Amino acid sequence: MRIRESLLAGPLGFGTAPLGNMFRDIPEDEALATVDAAWDAGTRFFDTAPFYGAGLAEIRLGEALSRRPRSDYVLSSKVGRLILDEIEDPSGRDHGEKGEIFKHGRPNKIVPDYTADGTMKSIEDSLKRMKVDHIDFVWVHDIAQDFYGDRWLAMFETARTGAFRALSKLRDQGVIKGWGLGVNKVEPVELLLGLSEADPDATLLAGRYTLLDHEMALQRLMPAAQRKKVDIVIGGPYSSGVLAGGRHFEYGAVPPAIAAKVEKLSALCTEYKIPIKAAALHFSLAHPASAAVIPGASRPARILEDHAALKTKIPAAFWQELRKRGLVAEAAPLPIDR
Known about the structure:
By secondary structure, the protein is α/β, with parallel strands linked by helices. The protein has one domain: TIM Barrel (Alpha-Beta Barrel). 39% of the residues lie in helices and 14% in strands. It has an 8-stranded parallel beta sheet with strand order 1-2-3-6-7-8-9-10. Strands 4-5 form a two-stranded antiparallel ribbon. Strand 1, helix 1 and strand 2 form a beta-alpha-beta unit. Helix 4 crosses helix 6. The radius of gyration is 19 Å and the shape is globular. 49% of the residues are buried.
């Protein structure tokens, strides 16, 4: 099932990576209040993953949603990594920059597993952590991360004969509504869409269709997704936070060229008196292949900003000037093109 057919309250969802203590040690009450703020603002699509804080985000999300009817929201999580009972130092994990990102998460050891058995075990564990009886959409997570190097193709092959088939079976049995990848690279999604044997319903693409980075996805991925009728859920619309005033881009320091582009975008938004968050969300959703956008947040106020941003009326002149100044690809669909 295409994910856009399942959304209960529009295209704005909540990406819960920050609830796993992403970049900082978030107090429990603040994390739960953020989910409550999302619900009260109308959010009914929540995305999470075992990897976020070694299960912490799932635990917190499940706790916050435990007072809500399960039929009233759409839930997606991920497979590809198992959270073990074995304890280790989170800051020493062999996950490249990701070890630093979730160094404040739970200390459980994380191991990659894209097999069919690993997929079933991951889903079972996620259900227990969130204390729910089903997950709607399941994404095969981070199959092409830089820290995997050349190994990612072998992992993709394992997923092709393991996770992909297991998830297709669960979908066909009605256990889940659909599946796809959950990645921040274009290449694995292209590879998936080219498989005659695989039939994904949607895919979560993080950071690759934003105001700051969209050309590769625009040229190669989005048209293929449209042809295959595979919905794209846009994760990381603020590019790790730099488009929302944060200090990170691609989970690390902001390069000078990116900082310069953000400055130009911010100046244009100031000129037209619109928040840069509004421009970011509306841009990511303007492509016909985009079904939803799921910014992350760890404070209730940020949730309210996201909802206000999506409701912001942006004048056509802003989009015309954005294109005129070369701040987006010439062929990128804009709201005025509809």
